[in-house]
Each structure stands twice: as C-alpha cells, then as structure tokens.
Write a structure and sequence with these properties.
The protein is of the alpha+beta class and about 375 residues long. The chain folds into 2 domains: about 5-95, NE0471 N-terminal domain-like, CATH 3.30.2020.30; about 115-375, Double-stranded beta-helix, CATH 3.60.130. Helix content is about 25%, strand content about 30%. The chain has 9 helices and 21 strands. It has helices at about 30-35, 90-95, 125-130, 135-145, 160-165, 235-245, 245-255, 300-320, 365-375; strands at about 5-10, 15-20, 25-30, 60-70, 70-80, 80-85, 125, 150-155, 170-175, 180-185, 200, 215-220, 230-235, 255-260, 270-275, 275-280, 285, 325-330, 335-340, 345, 355-365. Strands 7, 8, 9, 10, 12, 19 and 21 form a 7-stranded mixed β-sheet that branches. A 4-stranded antiparallel β-sheet has the order 11-20-13-18. Strands 1-2-3 form a 3-stranded antiparallel β-sheet. A hairpin with a 4-residue loop joins strand 1 and strand 2 (about 15-20). Helix 6 packs across helix 7 (about 245-255), helix 6 crosses helix 8 (about 300-320) and helix 7 crosses helix 8 (about 300-320). It is globular.
C-alpha cells in the first residue's frame, strides 16, 4: 500500500478516517466496520455469509487502534480486543462517505437510457454462440443490463425453444398463464395480446406483486403483414417527463396507481404501486404502465387529481412518441428479452393474412444479474 495512506481515529473511537490509495479521505463508523468484517469468526469462508448477528456486536464498539500493516488496514476493536484486517481496495469500493447529492430519478452507473437513436448499440447475439461460450453470454447479458433489452438470433424454430433462452441465465417464472404462453390470434381471447390489434407500449403484469422482472418473446412464425415489435425505454421517458415537468414527475412517483386483472375464472390479481417508482434515496427503479390493466386511481387526493391526470397523459404521450421507439420485426428463431421493470414493449397491428406465432415466458432479473456477476468475477484467461 502506498505510503500516503493515513488513518485518523475520530470521535473517541466511534469512527475513523482513512486516506485511501485513490487519494480520497473516507470516514467509516466503528460499528459498520465491525459488522462488515471478513475474518473467519464473522464470515463463513465458503459462502461469505455472516456467522453473527448485530446483537453479537457490543453496542459500545469503538476503534482502539488502527494502522497499516502488510498492505492492509488493521483495526483493533474494543471492548472485544479483536484486530481485523481490511483491504483498502474493498474499503474504497464500499465507501459510503460521499458528498454528492442525487436528484430524484437518478440511475445506476451501469444503466444507459436511450431512445430511437440506439441503433447499432442494440445488444444482439447468436443463440448458439452464447450457449457455447460464457464470455459471449456475459457480453450479451452485460448489454441487457445496460439497455434493459436484447435480441438473440439463430435459435431453433421449435415450440418451447424460449425455455432454453431462460435457462441461459436463470429460471422460468410460472404464472396463471403457465410456464409459457402463446401470442397469436384467438377467438374470445382472455387477453388482448391474443388478437391482431396493435398494442400501446406497456410493461407486462403490473397487477402482480412482484411483477415478473424479465419477459422473453420468441418468434416461431411471422409471415403476417405488420406485427412489428417496438420497445421504449421507460427510464428515458421518465427522464423526459422530469425535465419537462418536475411537478408532474413528482406526482407520478409520490402517488400509487392501481392495476387489476380478472380475465380468467378464479383469477383476480391486484396491485397498488406508482407508475414511476423510486427507491427511498431517489434512484429510479421501476416503471409500471399498462392502460389495458389500469384500475380506478383512488390514492390521489382530490386537489391533486387533475394535475396527476395531466402528468399521466403527458407520460403516455412521451412513451408514444416515435422518437422514443426502437422497431424491429422478428424472424422465426429470433427472440428478444426485456427488463419488465424498465422497458416497455409494443406491437403494431397485423392483418389476418399469413401467420404470426410467438411464444412468451417470464423470468426474473436476479438470475440474469447473478449469472452476469459470476461471469464477471471469473479470472480472464491470458490472450
């Protein structure tokens, strides 16, 4: 560790300040450091899970001494009289002593919002390549994480092939629609998706808690005229609304909409969530927008309802703006995946001539992110 790293004990041991190798001076509380220790008495070596609870850490924990030794920050805690080593790079990566203020609607660094100009940046990969090569799979999943959607080409043209796509990174999430569902014209359909009508850009199943966080749509036949797929970045739409109308953005984040589906016997699904959902610290985490499944909005005070509806209308207009959409037509053996908490998908109407047969299924983002993290944590092979 470079010699310029220095340590100062603060508030009679309640915290310490460390100047890390990147030059930043970061403060850490004693209880936080003790809770995040990686010694074998605190964490299981095999899986990294904590062996102790917070109640096992004395409430009066303080830092008695701290020094640099063998390239690590050695911290001695009282009243346990235990010395624990911390890697400086780990402390830098997990520092929480940051001065920056984030405005509501901020997004994580690995996310990039987009509009119709996305073009060649669409994450596209060959199904056989990502199935054989973990590095290729990681590259594709990284793109899906960044943009919220991606395409695969070169897949088999056979029923239930989409289940193999889900198996690349996780598991199918079964719902009342089954492990997978058919998207083609039906007589007396249980859902408007099973007609030839065009569909406004929407997120799926907003009436569930939690919603399925990923959706896969896989093409088996597509000779009908029309029926192109469209995707819209809901996060970019939210950013546009915030820039145009901070008040409208605030209304759609502070008040819950309601969604409902009761299109089948024995099924009545309901949820109550904002159309634009923020984490407590203002991070933009989810969009729920689906006019077909919207129920009566009853959680907005009378004095704000007119302004809420104006914001709702404007949000829909932004989503419908062709400058926001990426459009493509799937060929048999092709599919696309969307982050259903972020990217809205739509379909243009199609004629009765020819055929259009897609299959869809749901999965969850935690499996995709877990697979990607595992790939990224693997050592790279020398070229």
């Amino acid at each position: 560790m470079p010699e310029h790293v220095d340590i100062e004990i603060l508030d009679r041991g309640a915290a310490m300040a460390v100047r890390l190798p990147d030059g930043a001076r970061r403060r850490f509380h004693a209880v936080w450091l003790r809770d995040n220790a990686w010694d074998e008495a605190t964490r299981a070596p095999g899986n990294g899970q904590r062996r102790i609870t917070l109640a096992d850490i004395p409430a009066d924990t303080r830092i008695a001494a701290a020094r640099i030794e063998a390239g690590q920050v050695q911290v001695t805690f009282e009243p346990e009289n235990r010395t624990i080593a911390y890697d400086a790079a780990w402390l830098a990566a997990h520092a929480y002593d940051r001065p920056e203020r984030r405005s509501p609607g901020w997004t994580a660094p690995e996310i990039e919002t987009w509009d119709a100009g996305l073009g060649a940046s669409i994450p596209v990969a060959d199904f056989q390549a990502v199935r054989r090569d973990r590095a290729a799979l990681g590259g594709w999943l990284r793109g899906v994480r960044r943009y919220g959607f991606g395409k695969l080409t070169g897949g088999p043209v056979e029923s239930e092939a989409l289940l193999g796509v889900a198996a690349l990174f996780g598991y199918v999430r079964e719902t009342n629609y089954g492990r997978h569902f058919e998207v083609r014209t039906e007589v007396n359909p249980t859902n408007l998706a099973y007609t030839g009508l065009g569909l406004q850009a929407h997120t799926d199943n907003p009436y569930r808690d939690p919603v399925p966080t990923l959706q896969i749509l896989y093409c088996l036949e597509n000779s009908a005229e029309g029926g192109e797929n469209m995707v819209v970045d809901g996060f970019r739409a939210a950013e546009r609304l915030r820039a145009e109308s901070p008040e409208g953005f605030d209304l759609l984040t502070r008040h819950c909409a309601r969604f409902e589906y009761a299109g089948e016997a024995g099924v009545c699904l309901r949820s109550r969530r904002p159309m634009i959902e923020l984490a407590p610290d203002g991070e933009l985490v989810a969009i729920r927008f689906n006019n077909r499944s919207a129920a009566a909005i009853t959680d907005v005070p009378y004095e704000h309802m007119a302004a809420y509806y104006a914001a709702y209308r404007r949000f829909g207009e932004i989503i419908d703006d062709t400058a926001m959409e990426v459009t493509f037509k799937l060929a048999p053996g092709e599919c696309f995946i969307v982050d259903n908490t972020r990217v809205l998908h739509a379909r243009k109407g199609y004629s009765g001539a020819g055929s259009r047969w897609l299959q869809g299924c749901y999965a969850d983002k935690d499996g995709l992110l877990s697979t990607l993290a595992a790939i990224e944590s693997q050592p790279r092979k020398a070229a």
